[in-house]
Design brief:
Length: 147
């Protein structure tokens, strides 16, 4: 029994180490891509940034369930973490985005791609940002029972 517990703890530690390594690699990549956002969101607090990315990468696994064996699985997890990093929030906290991620009509990878497109459109075109905010608010109102 002790051996099983020890092996399970070792597996969890190994998985945590892998998660941290993936977040660290992503952080080093994002620092070069978005130096202004790094300064704006995290100043010099690299540990907080890595923790944020690790959390984002962990959250998306629920939406990518069943795709773990696909070759690009971790790349899509990192892409989702990048979207969260640029937006400076966990995208799946928003009901509209969460619905998009859980929609079964398309693969979850497409949902991540759609969210990236929405974010890019919002950042590059202020009128798009207003539209997407209104769309998200309308969906929140629907979920809250307000018409």
């Amino acid at each position: 029994m002790k051996l099983i517990e020890f092996m399970q703890q070792g597996r969890i530690t190994f998985e945590d180490t892998q998660e941290h390594a993936l977040a660290l690699w992503n952080w080093n990549r994002l620092k070069t891509l978005y130096p202004d956002l790094v300064l704006k969101h995290y100043d010099q607090d690299h540990d907080a940034a890595i923790e944020f990315l690790s959390e984002a990468q962990s959250r998306i696994t629920a939406y990518l369930h069943g795709a773990e064996e696909l070759l690009d699985y971790h790349a899509w997890r990192m892409a989702y973490a990048e979207i969260c990093f640029v937006a400076n929030r966990f995208i799946d906290d928003d009901p509209w985005s969460r619905e998009l991620l859980t929609e079964k009509l398309w693969p979850p990878f497409l949902a991540i791609d759609i969210l990236a497109g929405i974010l890019e459109s919002s950042l590059n075109h202020p009128e798009s940002q207003v539209f997407y905010q209104a769309l998200a608010q309308q969906r929140r109102d629907q979920l809250d029972g307000v018409e």
